[in-house]
Design goal:
Layout: H1 2-7, H2 64-71, H3 78-104, H4 110-131, H5 153-158, H6 161-170, H7 174-191, H8 203-209, H9 216-230, H10 238-252
């Protein structure tokens, strides 16, 4: 029954009016279709250069009205654009400088600035000379005697400083005792030809003579204590004298 139904299928062809194209499938050659042969190592060429165009170029004139309109624009003139950029840059620098000065709230004139720098250099040099034991003000270590009278060279080499120190300590005059001890140290250095004594010379003069030698450090400390006591016009105690005496004793150990 199933075969009978299949045989009853309507095989009528409906003509739609379109032409029917017939072909012979046995004549088709599959080898005629060429596929592009490219590999991963050799990609297909792209961007092939075009042939040069040798045709003549037609010149198109620019209307005068368009040229005049372009000339009226600032972008048309290169040197105007360059000068305008330069002026804009200068204006920006002026604005930034004015902003920084107004932001700080204080502006020091150039002349005053260099004056302050000079004062700082002089002050630094003054402190450096004092640290080296050189007195920039030229105070004289031997200019005044114990009671205010001038100190002569003869008195300096013949005076009994040891007894003077003992009397000053007994009287509680530590300031005078320190001064006499300092003069005694100067005389001993001169007697040993360690320094060149000269009447009226400053303390810094003798310190500079010992600069770089083995006596400099101790003598510098002794000189500093003496100037503090004698020129400082401040109260001096027994502890100050004892500290100076220790420096003197240490200096004498270097004489051997």
């Amino acid at each position: 029954a199933l075969y009978a139904q299949e045989g009853a299928i309507d095989t009528t062809v409906v003509d739609s009016g379109a032409p029917v194209v017939s072909y012979d499938s046995s004549r088709i050659d599959a080898t005629e279709v060429e596929e592009p042969r490219f590999s991963l190592d050799q990609p297909p060429p792209i961007g092939q250069p075009l042939a040069s165009d040798s045709s003549p170029v037609a010149v198109r004139p620019l209307p005068v009205s368009r040229l005049n309109e372009a000339r009226r624009e600032d972008d048309f003139w290169y040197w105007r654009y360059r000068s305008r950029r330069q002026s804009d840059r200068e204006q920006q620098e002026m604005d930034s400088s004015s902003t920084s000065s107004s932001g700080s709230g204080f502006s020091v004139p150039t002349g005053l600035f260099w004056v302050l720098i000079g004062i700082g250099i002089v002050a630094l040099l003054f402190l450096l000379l004092q640290a080296m034991g050189i007195n920039p003000l030229g105070k004289r270590a031997l200019a005044v005697g114990a009671e205010g009278e001038p100190e002569s060279a003869e008195d300096f080499f013949s005076r009994d400083f040891e007894s003077g120190v003992s009397r000053a300590l007994a009287a509680g005059d530590h300031r005078l005792a320190i001064r006499l001890r300092y003069l005694q140290v100067l005389r001993e250095l001169a007697d040993r030809n360690i320094i060149q004594y000269r009447q009226g010379a400053t303390n810094g003069h003798y310190v500079s003579q010992l600069w770089g030698g083995r006596y400099h450090t101790d003598f510098f400390r002794i000189t500093r204590t003496f100037e503090y006591a004698w020129y400082g016009m401040l109260p001096v105690t027994q502890a100050t004298f004892d500290r100076m005496q220790q420096d003197v004793d240490h200096l004498k150990t270097r004489f051997a």
